[in-house]
Specification:
This protein is 47% helix and 12% strand. By secondary structure, it is an alpha/beta fold. Strand 7, helix 12 and strand 8 form a beta-alpha-beta unit. Helix 5 packs antiparallel against helix 6, helix 7 packs across helix 9 and helix 11 crosses helix 12. The chain is globular and about 50 Å long. The termini are far apart. The model has no long low-confidence stretch (mean pLDDT 94).
Length: 260
């Protein structure tokens, strides 16, 4: 009788925005990974991936932040993040960040090769093809820039959502158009950012969907804020909350819990 195949050791990169604004996304990610057959660990020494500093040209600070991430995550079979943005930073920018550092270049490249965005990892690596719980609603899906363009995340969340009983997915007219968040972009160019998110919100509302889903908290916070300012009743959630059947555990983004 053959020995059972060992579970892959997966480290969850929680991300700053999930940790500070939406911890439920982290718990949902753990639930999904474990149910897909992974042994999940959450390294306690993880820090910011360094993307904000990197995007502003502060490579020294970005490297200072990246080193402890590499040290904490290098020993796992896979590193998974519920964010195409953070996953993209590790997978695509760490190697070039350390190209002149003989102590960290090889380790950065090794970590980059093992790093995945969550829905892509579940669909492409683990072959997840079932849903945990139903979701009664009509949802529109926004493709985040980094997830789409750096990590190739497009079909995977849609394949997973197609398995959710009761959920109808409506496509935006321009699902790949940036929402205007862009990390530090929204701070540097607030007027342009506001126009971009206003256009995105108009697209969302035109679908008639009652729920907006995406895989990056930055995009979700930006779009939820604009939707609320415009008086929209569209509920905003991270895709993991629907896939993990945890929508009853937390109010939609930007909304108060029931009874408050």
């Amino acid at each position: 009788m053959s020995e059972p195949k060992p579970k892959p050791r997966v480290a969850l990169f929680v991300t700053c925005l999930v940790d500070l604004y939406r911890p439920t996304v982290g718990f949902a990610a753990i639930r999904l990974l474990e149910e897909a057959g992974c042994q999940v660990e959450v390294p306690s020494l993880q820090t910011c991936c360094g993307q904000p500093a990197y995007n502003t040209g502060d490579r020294a600070t970005a490297k200072d932040l990246a080193r402890p991430v590499i040290d904490a995550f290098i020993g796992y079979d896979f590193v998974v993040a519920p964010s195409g943005s953070c996953a993209g930073m590790i997978a695509h920018h760490y190697p070039s960040l350390f190209e002149d550092d003989p102590d960290y270049r090889g380790r950065a490249e090794a970590l980059a090769s093992r790093t995945h965005e969550l829905t892509a990892f579940l669909a492409d690596i683990m072959g997840l093809d079932t849903a945990r719980a139903p979701y009664d609603g009509v949802a529109a899906y926004h493709d985040s820039c980094s997830g789409l363009r750096e990590m190739g995340v497009k079909a995977q969340p849609r394949r997973l959502l197609a398995k959710v009983p009761g959920l109808t997915l409506k496509e935006l007219a321009e699902p790949e158009l940036c929402c205007g968040f862009g990390g530090t972009f929204c701070v540097k160019y607030p007027d342009i950012s506001t126009r971009m998110v206003s256009d995105k919100v108009a697209d969302i509302r035109a679908t008639g969907a009652d729920t907006l889903l995406a895989g990056d908290m930055g995009c979700l916070l930006n779009m939820a804020g604009r939707l609320k300012r415009e008086g929209s009743e569209v509920h905003v959630r991270h895709v993991t909350e629907v896939l993990a059947g945890m929508t009853a555990d937390v109010a939609p983004i930007g909304e108060a819990p029931e009874g408050l």
